[in-house]
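To: structure desk
From: M.T.
Subject: fold request, one chain
Message: Could you run this one when you get a chance? Sequence is below, nothing fancy, just the single chain.
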Amino acid sequence: MLETATDFLYEQLAAELGQAIERGALRPGERLPSVRKLAADRACSVATVIQSYVVLENAGLIEVRPKSGHFVRRRSEGVAEPRAPRKSCQPAKVCGSVSDGVARLHQALRDPSIVPLGSAYVDASALPIVALNRLLAQIAREASTAGARYDVAPGLPTLRHQLARRAVSWGLVIHEDEFVTTVGATEAVLLGLRAVAKAGDAIAVESPTYFGVLQAIDSLGMKAVEIPAHPRTGMDLDALEDALRSGPVRAIVTTANVSNPLGAIMPDEAKERLVRIAARHDLPILEDDVYGDLVFDGTRPRPLRAFDKDGRVLLVGSVSKTLAPGYRVGWIAPGRWQEQVERLKFSQTLACATLPQMAVAEFLSSGGYDRHLRRLRNLLCGQLERYRQGIAAAFPEGTRVSAPRGGFVLWVELPAGVDALELQERALTRGVAVAPGPIFSARTRFQNFVRISCGLPWAGPAESAVKILGQIAAELVERRGRLRGAA
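Reply: Done. Structure tokens follow.
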């Protein structure tokens, strides 16, 4: 879905056409007016129409057919979504094979010849890296003593001020002194867990959940209680309450807005209920909100923190998914655990790098971030739809694909019997990295699931990589059929 907030005429035109497509005035398969005709009808330049069509194409709403023109793209709405897992209330240590699978992903990242569909990051062409780097260089020249001292916790004041300003648009009132800057969201999650729990404690997590959360739990000697999550609405709160009745749980970790790997967005009424459940059991909630700015329709869902009345939600965020993963700029608003988190930050990494924080703060204050987000959301919406269509066409019958309303990862359920770990190994030999389902579960469930990142442009290596994955999956299905027939 295209957003309507615009800065330029071509964006306004693209938004109007996008609304016509969304409302059915322009139907799938219909041809749009030619560039010259629309330019004449709207009394604008040909260049303006071309730019607007590029925006619509990037958003996945239209496609170009050689020598025929621009057409409304047919959506892959008939693709079934993955099924939620069964309930399991018993705490479990994180299986060692989770770290093994993640290690293989990290190794693949270091090999430039491998197409990285297993790692959740956006291609550099979609990020304002050049502008950020220019800011960084300017700051280094003008603030000649920057970096000469440690910006100890809570961190750089100008960045925390910008975060407090942005929090207002999230539906929150958080003072700048309530933020602690961190080395990305990964450190923020570790600090939050260390502040609220100790070794041996059980932590309730979504299932499937981001493998980084599982690694953090494992590194601290804690256990995970897996709570089934629905692809659309997130954590099953009835199952959570069952788990809380079954045994002691020390904290809850969740991504209520655009979860990873499902892309689920928890409805507001469910968020309110989750906060009430936590209050009733006197539990902290560690909320990872790194994808909250990437909802396709431009609405910014309120974090759980917006429903928190007594400071029990520790809110985590970063710019790694929207601006610059390599800058490693993250934060946590730890609520009632502020003092503990600041002390832990000092003992763990002392301080964050000053110059990247300054560059991000300057970019946030300039107003460029919101313009960038609008374009990035439209781009990712289109890319994700193209990946869904590509997976539906290339993968074997019976494959199910998530339909997230934000972010840039897809959760893919393969036909029963397909081993995702074997698919990962075979794909690596053919130059493709994919994230196997078992690394998203402490008990290595989801044996026939994979996560596919849609952060790379669809055309070119990514399209070929998806076809390779589909071929390997089909080979594994065929082999399973032969073995069953022989038996």
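Reply (cont.): The chain has 15 helices and 18 strands. Let me know if you need anything else for the meeting.
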